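ugh ok fine here u go
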Amino acid sequence: MIVPVILSGGSGTRLWPLSRKHRPKQFISLINDTSSFQDTILRLPKNMSNPLIICNEEHRFLAAEQLREINITQKDIILEPTGKNTAPAIALAALQMINNNYDPLLLILPADHIIKNKKAFHKSIEIAKTLAIKGNLVTFGITPNKAVTEYGYIKANINKQTEYYKIDSFTEKPNQKDADAYLKSGSYFWNSGMFMFRASLYLNEISKFEPKILECCEKSLQVQYKDKDLDFIRLNNDEFLKCPAISIDYAVMEKTDKAMVVSLDADWSDTGSWESVINSSSPDSKGNFLDGDVVLDKVENTFIYSENRLVSALGISDLIIVDTQDALLVTTKKYAQNIKDIIKKLKEHNRVELEYHRKVYRPWGSYDIIDTGIEFQVKRILVKAGSKLSLQKHLHRSEHWIVVSGVAKITCGEKTHILKENESTYIPKGEIHRLENCQNHTLEIIEIQTGKYLGEDDIIRLEDDYKRS
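structure:
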């Protein structure tokens, strides 16, 4: 049996403003109605076990909810307190299997890839499976169709026409001259970051080349520290933070004598930039890529994404326009790779738009900040069927709740009461309170906050179903 391991870390800053720290690119629908995280799972062959997920602790409920949406019921999600690159993440997955007395083949897949040709992808998996069973560490090399500088490269020992090869070397992202030479030589593949090997073999190799990684990961997953709540496997954070941050390429693949590459020609790309999203989309007759409510006149070769309102454009070309509820990006395609410069400025000014969208997802539902002003804020809150917020209080604000649809169970101090549509209640500053949806459909309320400080950190949780601090 093959166990898919989905690596779902990363923040995808080059896709800002759509991708942000607390809802990064892998959890966003960019190409179709499902996210790339969901697509990574949905395109797997049917004969595999359910996936093991590794994600940042901040994204745990996003991952769990998106698994639920695609009917994945058996969920094991390892939570990293911080990203340490791919070598430790994969070591955690392998140890988790071995600790459960199971030594399967692991299929390592980043959660942000686009693969359009599933048949070719499945064929490459079968080839990799044969090699992995024989004791090889297999990576998937993408057959290049142009000389690009944004991917790493794998040089293969191509001495015969097969679908797999020994690896000569790995190369970081090259300059354009070297990329041209790699493509011309016919000996190079793009480095996809996808792998297959037996769990025990990976642990043997990493213990040989990077024993500190194995030591830290073992201590992080020790039984006395292992705390599984809901679908989540928590680590001993103190031990994991000591772990070196190294990619699997540097830690193992460049050093082992068991590395093989399987060629993959399956219409692959990652979603690392707006350019890659554009290249994975289908243009109209004038070369435009449109998503959302968009009206054009005399526009060519332009990408426009509108999240929630009408965007009109006249007499432009070769632009990228991304409009979200609270931030707008306008750039030329030429400068799309330089979004990191905007990100740097946003960090310097501590802009909240770098981390949060206006609509914020929580394990119980979501809220949308409709309006803010001096000492007030208005939110539209949606609570999923059967869910409830934490029992909490605020030191700096009071709240007014108005039920728009559904039935709310309200706890305020020592009293509990029911609130129906078009009814309201008041939560004084400092009062212990809770909002609960006991119905089988979504509860919608409008919350009006008033006070001198309205930050999200003004929440003192006393009880919480989701074990948040």
